[in-house]
Amino acid sequence: MKKILVINPGSTSTKVAYYEDKEEKLNKNVFHDNSELAGFEKISDQYDYRLNLIAEFLEQEGISVSDLDAAVGRGGSLPPVDAGAYLVNDSMIDWLVNKTDVHHASNLGAMLARGFKEKAKDDCIAMIYDPITVDQFHDLSRISGLKGVNRRSIGHMLNMRAIAMKTAEEMDKKYEDLNLIVAHLGSGSSISVHEKGRMIDLSIDDEGPFSVERTGSLCLKEFIPFCYQMTQEEVTSWTRKKGGMISYLGTNSGIEVEERIDAGDEEARLILEAMAYQVAKGIGELATVVNGQVDGIVITGGFAYSKRILDWVTERVSFIAPVSAIPGEFEMEALRNGALRVLAKEEIGKEFK
């Protein structure tokens, strides 16, 4: 029996799960006090605070860290890497602390995994799986339209690949034999196309459909003048935190918007349908990457719980391929499964260099 700790850091909380083989024994969100987080200058400075808080929580839950076979964290903003498992080493930690240009809470995943490995038995491994910078683009995918500005492969890689593999399993097919499109819809959205087991292109949350808090692609002629009226920090905030649905409707709650539609709010209906409309356009765009040879389209993320969103997207894209929904996210299970494969020597834990 293999004992696995899974750690998925978010901006204000850390998801923690404990498994014995595939059996889930614990799955909780450990919340962090905003006033305490505000005292840390950088994300990496939160390491000791989060490590101690999680360790105390596990002790209270009766989980013995010393018996762990693997501690696996969500992979952060590394340079572009291929998909799969990576063992945590000094080079990885150095990159996440000192070299990355994307300061995201997921950067703590590798650090916390190694922290718990050091508390465990000697043969415990610390690893990450499918970090947010998984890059399987082909050359055509990288061209943006302006020399010197390349398209970047970054997004909800862990969940989208997990959903693609889960879909293949449900179809009784191999992931490597299918062409799939996966749309992850949440506060930010990513849509990816998977060709025979490789995620060769995607529409990331600043160039595709608008989402709950992010603008997606904008008409540059209209937007450029705004940039001269704001600082870089303000532009980033408007496009990544205050844009999208919240800019139109003043809320980031999909449930509230659905309730407003039920009460007859036509503006709420227009904006939510426009978001679904743009998601459908993004799916159609990526279908061309595989010449329309798509075996399945999958909607996942928080908005996959919305029947309205699903119906609006499905009616526009079902001519391409069958549409299914897997609501929520499966990141914890994906991290667990990756660790189990490495422990069983079914997959090699790569070395980050």
From TrEMBL:
<keyword id="KW-0418">Kinase</keyword>
<dbReference type="GO" id="GO:0005737">
    <property type="term" value="C:cytoplasm"/>
</dbReference>
<dbReference type="GO" id="GO:0047761">
    <property type="term" value="F:butyrate kinase activity"/>
</dbReference>
<dbReference type="InterPro" id="IPR000890">
    <property type="entry name" value="Aliphatic_acid_kin_short-chain"/>
</dbReference>
<dbReference type="GO" id="GO:0008776">
    <property type="term" value="F:acetate kinase activity"/>
</dbReference>
<dbReference type="InterPro" id="IPR011245">
    <property type="entry name" value="Butyrate_kin"/>
</dbReference>
<keyword id="KW-0547">Nucleotide-binding</keyword>
<protein>
    <recommendedName>
        <fullName>Probable butyrate kinase</fullName>
        <ecNumber>2.7.2.7</ecNumber>
    </recommendedName>
</protein>
<dbReference type="InterPro" id="IPR043129">
    <property type="entry name" value="ATPase_NBD"/>
</dbReference>
<keyword id="KW-0808">Transferase</keyword>
<dbReference type="GO" id="GO:0006083">
    <property type="term" value="P:acetate metabolic process"/>
</dbReference>
<dbReference type="Pfam" id="PF00871">
    <property type="entry name" value="Acetate_kinase"/>
</dbReference>
<comment type="similarity">
    <text>Belongs to the acetokinase family.</text>
</comment>
<keyword id="KW-0963">Cytoplasm</keyword>
<dbReference type="InterPro" id="IPR023865">
    <property type="entry name" value="Aliphatic_acid_kinase_CS"/>
</dbReference>
<dbReference type="GO" id="GO:0005524">
    <property type="term" value="F:ATP binding"/>
</dbReference>
<keyword id="KW-0067">ATP-binding</keyword>
